[in-house]
Write a structure and sequence with these properties.
- By secondary structure, the chain is of the alpha/beta class.
- Helices cover about 30% and strands about 20% of the residues.
- The chain is built from seven helices and eleven strands.
- It has helices spanning about 85-90, 120-135, 150-155, 175-185, 225-235, 240-250, 260-275, and strands at about 25, 30-35, 40-50, 50-55, 60-65, 65-70, 75-80, 110-115, 140, 165, 190-195.
- The longest helix has 18 residues, at about 120-135.
- The model has no long low-confidence stretch (mean pLDDT about 85).
Amino acid sequence: MDDRYSADVLSPGWRDAGRRIIPTQEATRDLVVEEVATGFCGAVIRVEKKIVTLEDRHGKLRLFPLGSGFLIDGRPVTLIAPTMRAALGRVRTASGSTAVPDAPARVARASRIFVEGRHDAELVEKVWGADLRIEGVVVEYIEGVDNLDEILREFRPGSGRRVGVLVDHLVPGSKESRIAEAVARGPYAASVLVVGHPFVDVWQSVKPARVGLTAWPDIPRSIEWKHGICDALGWPHEEQADIARAWQRILGQVRTFADLEPQLLGRVENLIDFVTAE
């Protein structure tokens, strides 16, 4: 005869009867999730101390505690820290490229990337250094672009010998824009690409949130920009050594491309593509 009564309510598993089980998901890099409470949707950038950092398609970063309250393709999941094996499965360089473990550095190409100063070179190295070594691209700083024409005549760009130049404050009507236009009209135009970002100094290409700001302060033209920034931040700035320490403090907050403004990211990627084109 059929049992007219249900099973014993105290039998094993009775507490889970009818309960929806939410699966766990390791928060591996580049996994796209949505945080339910805020509706913020972004890719996993990093996981540190039970906190996951997400970046949306506009480059905005948000931090959330691991655990429940996330969706993947509309389905709830519980995010957990990735295992070591999972973390090693998708290693990325600081620029976001897929890492090539133990890859030897390529013999340097004849082509070069020129940047204006030491700070530009250090920032490019920190974020794109692994990529540049694999591609065999050397980055040199030229102490400003006023003498760019002379440098190009000495370098003699041509077939298989391209030059990419990254310029600060490349905006309409600026000195830098006039220099870039002159290069575009010059004899090396086919082998030289000059691009730039709109920032007064490469410091501004670091997202202000990385140094505890909502925006970089406006500095009057009568004040040297870096000194003005240090003063606004309450940092020492009397000597050049103070400025150097301030930059190292800022650079130390840059871990990946996600810490930089898109206006710089696209320009550097453009230069790398240009000088590595076969």
